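Quick one, T. Sequence first:
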Amino acid sequence: MRAVAETTLTFEGRFASEFEELAVPWKAAEAPDPQLLALNEGMALELGLNPADLRTPEGIRLLIGNLIPKGATPVAQAYAGHQFGGYSPILGDGRALLLGEVTDVNGRLRDVHLKGSGRTPFARAGDGFAVVGPMLREYLVSESMHAMGIPTTRSLAVVGTGQPVRRETMLPGAVLTRVADSHLRVGSFQFARVNGDTELLRRLADHAISRHYPAAAAAPQPYVAFFDAVIAAQASLVARWMLVGFVHGVMNTDNMAISGETIDYGPCAFMDAFNPGAVYSSIDEGGRYAYANQPLIAEWNLTRLAEALLPLLHEDQEQAVALAVESLGAFRTQYSAAWLSGMKAKLGLGAGATEDIAAPLADDLLALLQQGEVDYTSFFRGLGSAAGGATATVRALFVDPEAFEAWAERWRALMPDAEAMDRVNPVYIPRNHLVEEALAAATAGDLGPFNRLVDVLADPYTERPGQERYAAPAPDDFGSYRTFCGT
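Structure tokens:
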């Protein structure tokens, strides 16, 4: 496997060597019969890999950590975190390993990470394995998010292990190979703070600045500037989630990436009918991570990061708190600005639609969508045709068509740009019923529906003849939808 082993891919063990306190050297469990289920050829090429090499037996073993490439130092990462509001001083990668970092063809440093590779010292009561369905779900949804321009970790491959895994029934095991700008989390900083290790905290911050926010290094207060940059990244990210109707489902602090990427696609889903209270996680019984709560939870998580960073913000505790509070005060303004800018784009509105006009127009529309339980994605994609007065299709979605017509009259007076709307309102998202159909088939050994759905989602804004079922809302008998993280 020359292209991988000798020339193309050389790993760095930067995290493993620089943060020994947070890195436990470990080996992936041996897979008895590894079989490639999905390979992201575009991602492979971006990393400088030859996809043909990854399809060989040696390449498949590399993808699951059973063949260690040159320079790789597999480690399980330690971190802390708040899970559903409850604090755990140590969590860590219970079923995952960081193989190391690679420099891609654009000179960008990327993590290559495994999920479902077996028990680690952080596994607690878990078996450390993953099953085919949830790993293919992460592949599908993360690649869909990437296609829509939303910052996200990427999926390089899913490999079936040939080992059955017990959940409610016996299911086929799998490993996901994930690529990220890094796996630094809010929980990484919480771990350093709870252990009173200010030097580790400083090294983590310096590493994050160097890797993600280099401009902060030249600021008068580099760690304040770093915190400000993380706040801005998260405000933009969560606004983008909200604009496409994405519900993350498990916004624990160990699942908030410092880089501003979406990470951990466990119990996630896209809304069908617009519902601010939409919850899809089987374990989120109180609705903590409901759709409408996501901006507030992001702010809450950032407050936990602020608490961890206090020793770096100022040597005087009171002044450190004051600086943190000042920085956090920008989140709501930044989020609201990002969301409103995105909503104006979805509505095809130009610069003439000032905030005092656009904000109430958007709020009134969302109230109508909620009242009528209107399919969120279908409505916005269909709205472009209404810009010229052809309102019949979207009008039929509402229980109160006259209320929609009154709203549409206000909207059309602002001269919306239908073509611009089609560039930001997707035709195709990972519809929950289609995802479940594809995952059920793949679990049974048929990857056809999964591959077809991947192909459709790769170009979400171009409507294609013959693909109508991928744009249609869920059938009436689909019922209440719940997702599971697969542990």
